[in-house]
Amino acid sequence: MKGGAVENNRHLASYAAQPQASRGRLVAEAVPQFRSEYQRDRDRIVHSAAFRRLEYKTQVFVNHEGDMFRTRLTHSIEVAQIGRSIARALQLNEDLTEAIALAHDLGHTPFGHAGQDILNECMRDYGGFEHNLQSLWVVDELEEKYADFQGLNLTFETREGILKHCNLDKARQLGEVGQRFLLKTQPGLEAQLANLADEIAYNNHDVDDGLRAGLISVEQLCEIKLFRRQYDVVKEFYPDISGKRMVHEIIRRMINDQVADLINNTKQNLSKHQPGLIVDVRGLPEPMVSFSTDMRDLNLQLKQFLRQQLYQHYRVQRMSNKAGRVIRNLFDAFMAETKMLPPEQLHRCERLESRQGEEGRARAVADYVAGMTDRYAIVEHDRIFDPSALT
Ligand code: MG
Q1: CA 282 to ligand 1 centroid distance, Å
Q2: How many Å lie between the centroid of ligand 1 and the Cα of residue 313?
Q3: Are 208 and 339 within one domain?
Q4: CB within 5 A of ion ligand 1: which residues?
Q5: pTM of the predicted model, to two decimals?
Q6: Residues 282, 135: one domain?
Q7: 20 domain-assigned
């Protein structure tokens, strides 16, 4: 009996993703007995090697800077938590939302955005590097553990949600999952929602991590309306509160504020457009899951603040710069001498090179470097460039 699926579907709105109406997997498989199709996707993601590596990959701060900061693993869990709450409130599919949230950053390089930017530069002549596309590449190709197929063979809906952005050139090469970029249609609501849950999660935890690292201050943040609003509320209820307890009370209210706005505004959008099924959602001219205009403006102010005061802080810049050099050095070294790649990687590199020439070699090297954790990249860098590490 498909108990799980039946139980779930009772609570779903008509326009939610229904597992039994999935557009399916690239390789057809039997319907799971006790789970829905999206639960199976989520489970495969959790058991993947790329998911485990998220523990040692960072967003803004380098992993070994301290254990107090978010990693991509804890970030992905936060996105899943926020996403599931919103999905339940909107009667959307929680399992699908969770699967997308847990997979959305699988393609990230070590060292956060700094790593991705440099790898993209390294790959400029070979089709570039983009972390969204890489996340799809991880679940479609790079995970090698099932006997019957390459990758994790996820459902169309999960893959659609993972591929948030894509340029038209790439979209043409991707088949079904790239079509919406060519036709300018929308993804399902769970994909739209996971995307904004990501934004809520990282804006708020970057405030938290930035404060903890001493790179930004409560005084500075009081200039930011979204923060100030909740600061005033907390101070009114608890006049003597301070330190990390105060920060947490503010941030949890900021998250709540954004989540409530997203739910209410999306409900309004849905009642205005009245989509019947997921196919109607896809055909609408704009996404249905969105913040109100007011909240969008408030978010923008916070993002600009974080960009100027946190991401461009000289200490973050130093880390990013150093991280970039590690990535570039590794890429250049392996491109120049592929025999330094571990056997499995070398084998893959030779296979791709025989099919696609230098571009294939570059892709294999980029896949290897992108898959590294922060600390593994640093260790590999030492092994290759530090003359005293002759092992
Ligand atoms: Mg993310």
Answers
A1: 23
A2: 21
A3: no
A4: 105, 198
A5: 0.94
A6: yes
A7: yes
Whether 216 and 328 share a structural domain: no
Domain count, the chain: 2
Q: Ligand 1 mean position to 49 CA, how many Å?
A: 18
Asked whether residue 55 falls in the same domain as residue 110, the answer is yes
> Which long-range CB contacts under 8 A does 37-42 form with residues at least 24 apart?
37/5, 37/155, 38/93, 38/95, 38/96, 38/98, 38/99, 38/155, 38/157, 38/158, 39/4, 39/95, 41/95, 41/96, 41/99, 41/152, 41/154, 41/155, 41/158, 42/95, 42/98, 42/99, 42/102
Tokens of 47: 């058991």
Write out pLDDT tens, residues 28-76. 999 999 999 999 999 999 999 999 999 988 876 655 555 567 889 999 9
Residues 110 and 254 in one domain: yes
Percentage of residues in the chain having pLDDT higher than 70: 95
% pLDDT > 90, the chain: 85
| Alpha carbon of 319 to ligand 1 centroid (Å) | 20
CB 301 within 8 A of CB 267: no
- Tell me which residue of 40, 26, 48 sits closest to 371, measured CA to CA: 48
Would you state the structure tokens that stand for residue 239, as one six-digit string? 């006049």
Question: What whole-number distance in Å separates Cα of residue 94 and Cα of residue 279?
Answer: 19
309 and 347, same domain (yes or no): no
202 CA to middle of ligand 1, Å?
Answer: 7
Domain membership of residue 149 as a residue range: 4-315
